[in-house]
Amino acid sequence: MNEPSKRKSSTERHEAIDVSDFVYAATGARVRRLTMPDGKHWFPAVDVCKELGHTNSRKALADHVPDGHREMLETVTGGYGLSIPAGRGWRRDLHVISLQGLILLVNACTKSACAPFKQWVAEVIETVQHEGSYSLDKAEVQPAEPGAPVAYAMPEQVAEAIVRLEAHNLRLDEELAGGQREAIALQKEMLTAHQDALAVQQATLAVQQATLAVQQAMVRAMERIADRFDTLVLERRTPGTAFTAPPTTESVLAHWRERLSVTEDVWAVAVVIAPVLVEQGELREPLESIAARTGLSVHRVNECLRLLRKHACIRPRGGTEDGAPVYVLPQA
User: Fold this and answer.
1) What's the distance, CA 218 to chain centroid?
2) d(CA 153, CA 19)
3) In terms of Cα–Cα distance, which of 75, 54, 76 is closest to 65?
4) For the chain, what is the mean pLDDT?
5) If DSSP codes are grouped into helix, strand and coil, which group holds residue 195?
6) Domain spanning 238-328 has what CATH number?
7) What is the 3-state secondary structure (H, E, C) of 131-156?
8) pTM beyond cutoff 0.70
9) Beta bridge pairs of residue 96
10) What are the domain boundaries of the chain?
11) How far apart are CA 131 and CA 111, in angstroms?
12) Residue 91 DSSP label
């Protein structure tokens, strides 16, 4: 570029090759870029080194990029009176390199994808050495309006590199999309399997609950059968157990005293239930009510009733709606 063209303002100048395409052809990636008011481009060194395979960005800069083409982001933006760009990736101490610095790093890269760009750079240098200059071919379509930017044909090596890299990226995108679809399908299968397992667990729990209810009912039935069997055995062994005359509370209590050794707790229960059995013909009173009236525990009340049943003083006959046994006198 001759001297007059260097003095053109930033609004008049134009780039023969779009800088994004140029960088993409050189590095194989879309690298972040800051463009200053004078048209100079700066790139985060860490981005360029990552794409080119330089594992130690500081060493790569020190070995291949002169000081004039690498700076701190704060220094670059401060020189134009600009602030640091917003975003997590932009920091004051971020190393940035110019376009020439980027090209120097590409030339130092050994990746095969950089070969076409290096070949074109070598061609440019050879042409300049041989002919004294290098110019891009003007495009077939010229600007329609006077003063419009002139379009140039992109170098073949750069264009081929861009096309090849874009095709590679498209394949990667397709593979990624396919992998995502497979992952979604697998997640759906796992969700269905989890739902099936949950349904099986719920069904198993329902069966277990039903089995427990049946077992509890069987236990209650066996207790009633055992009580009835004890009563029948005692009645057979002890003739004349049933009352021959209408019972009274006193006669019932006297009869019970004869049949068993009445302890204080048994007597307390007997005094409470005897009037009920005589007057109502049956005892439907809950154990908790008897316990409250006698001052005994529910467990002790139940033991006293079992003792009275065992000695044929009372016998069970059916049960209440809530499953509690109903007691009557042996003659009933």
Assistant:
1) 45
2) 14
3) 54
4) 80
5) helix
6) 1.10.10.10
7) HCCCCCCECCCCCCCCCCCCCECCCH
8) no
9) 44, 71
10) 9-136, 155-217, 238-328
11) 30
12) -
